[in-house]
Amino acid sequence: MSEIQEGTHCVSVSWDNGVPEALIKELRSNMKLGSDGRVSYEIGTQFLFDALFDKVVHPYGLDYETMHWEFVMAILETFRIDKLSKPGDILHAFKVKCENILRNRKKYLLITSLSLKNMYLPKRRKIKGCAVMFSREVPRKYRGARKKLFLDHSELDLSEQEGFLFASVSVQSANKRTAFMSAMSALDVIRAVWQLGFRRNINFLAMRKDHEYPTDSIISVGQAHTLHCEDGKEKSGGLWYEPSYNNIPPTTVKDFSLMESNLATLLSRIRRSNFQDHLYASLTNYINALDQDDQDFRFMKLWSATERMVKAGNSKELIKRVSFFYKNRETTQAMLESLKNARNMNAHHGLKPANVEMKNFQMCSYVNNLLLFFINQGSKFKSLNHVIDFISSKTDLQSIDEQISNLQMVKKFIGAK
C-alpha cells in the first residue's frame, strides 16, 4: 500500500518555489517538432518529465499514474504550440486535462476484508466522500464477480480469510485506479482510528522482539481487493492483492461497543476540524507504516509520517515540535535525538538500527499522542499553520515571561499613541 500525499485546497495549479527554469530549458533542448506536427524527444527525457512533475502543486485527488500521464501530455501539447516558452501554459494545459477527467465520474464499489472477527458488525461510515459498509459475507450482488476474478487469476492463489469481516466501499471516481486509492484510503482512516483505541503493552515474556514490543496494525486488510461496477459486475483489471500477505487469525476485542463509540467520537471531531485533510493524511500514513512487515522499513515510515504530521522540514524542527507536549522535555528531546541518529544511520549508511522493534514502539507512542492532540484540538485552531506555530512555541518559562512583558510594552505604547 502506498503512502498517499496530504490533500490540499489550492485555488490553482502552480510551481513549487518558482518556475523550474533549468528543467524546462533542458526539456526544450531534448524535444523536437516534426513536419507532421508530432513531438518527439530523446531517450532519458522521461526523467525530466518526472522531475518537473514533482515541482507541481495541485489540488487533484487523482491517482499518480493518471496525473503523471496527463502532465506529460500537457508538456507535449505546450511544446507543439509555443516550444515551452511560457511555462505557465504547461500548468494550464495540465489543469484543463485533470478537470476534464474529474467531470466524468462513475460509481465504483470496492470489496475487501478486514482482520476483525465477523461476529462484530460496525456501523456504516462516511469517510472523505466514500460510503463504507460492513458485512459478514461478500454481498450477494458482487459475490459471483469477485469469485470470477479469483479464478481468472488462479496463479495468485487468492482466497477469502476465514472469520474476517467484509468491507464494501462505494466511491464516485474518474477511473478505477483513483477509485481503488480513495476507497482504500477511507478504510485506512477507520483502521488507524481503531488503532488509536487499542492499548499496546510491553510483553517482557515474549520470545521474539516484535512480540515484546508489538507495533503491528491490529486490524489489517485481507489478501485481495476487488473493484466492481455499480451493476455488480467485475471491473476489467479491478483486482489488487497483498503480495506479502501473511495469513493471520481474525482479531477479537473486549468491548466492541466502546470501540464503535470511540470511532464515532473521533471521526466527528475530525469532520469538525479546520484541517481535516491533514488529519486524514496523517492517519493514513500512520497505519500504512504499521502495515509494513519489515521492522527497519516500518521505522523509516514512522519517522516520515511524524515529519509530515508536524510539518517538519528537518530533524531539529521535528524534535522541538514533538517534545513540546512532554513535561520532561529534555529527556524526550534526548530520546528523539537518539531515534534521529538511528534514522540517519539507516537512511545514509544502510545500517540496521539496534533494537529497532523497541524504537518502533517509542515512535508509535509519540505518533499516537500527536494524532490524539491534533484530532481532539482540531476545531480550536483556525488552521494547520496555527497548530504548527503553537507547538513550535518556546517552552522556556523565562523566555515566555520576557516575551509577554515585551508585548505588554508594545500594547501600551501603541495604545498611548
- Discrete helix count: 15
Element pattern in H and E:
EHEEHEHHEEEHEHHEEHHHHHHHH
Structural class: alpha+beta
The number of domains: 3
Unreliable runs? 1-11
Helicity level: 40-55%
**What kind of sheet is the major sheet?**
6 strands, antiparallel
Query: Largest sheet, order of strands side by side?
Result: 6-7-8-5-9-10
N-C termini distance: 61 Å
Global geometry: globular
Radius of gyration: 25 Å
Oligomer designation:
single chain
Which properties best describe this structure?
disordered N terminus; alpha+beta; 417 residues; six-stranded antiparallel beta sheet; 3 domains; two-stranded antiparallel sheet
Layout of secondary structure:
Layout: E1 14-15, H1 21-30, E2 31-33, E3 39-41, H2 45-53, E4 56-57, H3 64-82, H4 87-103, E5 106-117, E6 125-127, E7 130-135, H5 140-152, E8 164-173, H6 176-197, H7 209-212, E9 224-229, E10 234-241, H8 256-272, H9 276-290, H10 295-309, H11 315-323, H12 329-349, H13 356-376, H14 384-391, H15 397-416
Antiparallel strand pairs: 1-4, 2-3, 5-8, 5-9, 6-7, 7-8, 9-10
